[in-house]
Amino acid sequence: MFYARIGLLVLFSVQALSVAADAPELPSDFAKAPDGKAITEKDHAALGGGKIMVQLKSVKGSPVKQAVSIAVLEASPAAVYSVLLDYELHGKFMPYVKETKILGKEGGKTRVRYMLDFPWPVGNRFYVLRMFGETRQEEGAKIYVSRWAYEPGSGNVTDCYGSFEVVAYGQKKTLLRYTCFMDPGGSIPKWTLNLSTTRGVTKVIQNLRKRLNGKYSLNP
Predict the structure, then answer these.
(1) Looking at CB atoms within 10 Å, which of 32, 76, 120, 191 has the fewest?
(2) Residue 131: phi, psi to the nearest 5?
(3) 134: closest CA among 120, 147, 121, 118?
(4) How many domains does the chain contain in total?
(5) 8 A C-beta contact, residue 174 and residue 72
(6) Average pLDDT, whole number, for the chain?
(7) Domain limits for position 30
(8) 174-185 core/surface letters (b: 16 or more CB in 10 A; e: else)
(9) By the 8 A CB rule, do 163 and 145 touch?
């Protein structure tokens, strides 16, 4: 019995060391979970298994919360970035997006009109986002970024902004950080919006995975 227990302890120690060894090195800014704490070995194991980590954060002056999420995708950062910049096909993985149309470029940013069909009680929403992509180097790693912001007065929402940030996660994978804030306006219970935000962010990442695998998802 004693030797059996020793054997189990050795096995568990080896497995823990294996997880730690397999966990890729990330730039310090990306080595944090959505709650701001360092990504643990357990987190790496869960992310490698497909888990999507989501955290809602308070936004000053708004009852609606911002979502921050991370996930690992089975594709290179360049491949993920290419899909994210294909604005006219965002309806293939963005829940409730019925139509997107590029209106033109202005000041280095692309103006894109979005038409969305949310379930009751939100209903239809439309707006124009100013989108732009950029890359930067951080601690020797190449970071791909796609950001957006609401064009005031362009639709029937209060505000919308966010970003996708991607970085290599090992050799053939990508760590995605998705930050999103969306206040559709109206007299909608805020707890409903916050619950919908968590579900919507998760659905975006799930659909993005399908999109990268060549499987176009259906909305919503």
Answers:
(1) 120
(2) -105, 145
(3) 147
(4) 1
(5) yes
(6) 85
(7) 2-212
(8) bbbbbbbbbbbe
(9) yes
Bridge partner residues of 72 (DSSP): 175
Inside any domain, residue 169:
yes
From 164, 37, 42, select the one nearest 94 (Cα to Cα): 164
Q: How far apart are CA 100 and CA 40, in angstroms?
A: 38
CATH number, position 136: 3.30.530.20
In a domain, 217, yes or no: no
pTM: 0.84
Q: Are 112 and 131 in contact (CB under 8 A)?
A: yes
42-80, pLDDT tens digit by residue? 999 999 999 999 999 999 988 889 999 999 999 999 999
Q: Is residue 15 a part of any domain in this protein? A: yes
**78-94 pLDDT tens trace:** 999 999 999 988 888 88
C-alpha distance from residue 100 to each of 75, 103, 104, 113 (Å): 25, 9, 12, 5
Alpha-carbon distance 56 to 110, whole Å? Answer: 28
Round to whole Å and give the CA distance between 201 and 194: 11
Burial class (CB in 10 A: 0-12, 13-18, 19+), 15: exposed
Task: Output the six-digit token pair for 31.
Answer: 């080595």
Angle at 206 between CA 124 and CA 85, to 5 degrees: 70
